[in-house]
Design goal:
- The protein is of the alpha+beta class.
- It has a single domain (11-113), classed as Trna Endonuclease, Chain: A, domain 1 (3-Layer(aba) Sandwich), CATH 3.40.1350.
- 40% of the residues lie in helices and 17% in strands.
- It contains 5 helices and 4 strands, in the order H-H-E-E-E-H-E-H-H.
- The chain has helices spanning 11-19, 22-35, 78-89, 99-104, 106-113; strands spanning 39-41, 56-60, 63-69, 93-97.
- It has a 4-stranded mixed β-sheet with strand order 1-2-3-4, sandwiched between helices.
- The protein is globular, with a radius of gyration of 14 Å.
Length: 121
């Protein structure tokens, strides 16, 4: 469910995105999920979990998002890429969120879409 948002960032927001850590991005996602009353799952100790499973699973009446969080410029590991590709191939909404996605409004837009039930066809 990639939502179209303004792709251009001001120089100041580009600087902020580059400085934002994955932990800070995760805190934004946690706060937004709470505000929007969405269910959220995060594996806190992944030592006994399969390698590469996405950082965040967010669920609402409008669907489910599997998201790997990365710092600006970082790429998912091979194991993370396999999980994201496998989930996407199974019809799930799996992707990567970076700080720039926070500043463009993409993350908020995608999470807000989960609040509204899917229309049946």
């Amino acid at each position: 469910m990639r939502v179209r948002v303004s792709e251009s960032l001001s120089d100041e927001k580009v600087k902020l995105a580059r400085r934002m850590s994955e932990k800070d991005l995760a805190a934004q996602v946690v706060d937004t999920a709470k505000t929007l009353n969405l269910l959220r799952y995060h594996t806190y100790r992944s030592t006994r979990s399969p390698s590469g499973f996405p950082d965040e699973v967010i669920v609402g009446p409008g669907g489910c998002l599997f998201r790997e969080l990365k710092r600006e410029g970082e790429k998912p590991t091979v194991a993370q890429q396999k999980w994201l590709a496998g989930l996407s191939a199974a019809g799930e909404d799996a992707d990567v969120w970076r700080p720039s996605d926070w500043y463009t409004g993409r993350i908020l837009a995608e999470m807000t879409m989960l609040r509204h039930p899917r229309r049946s066809t």
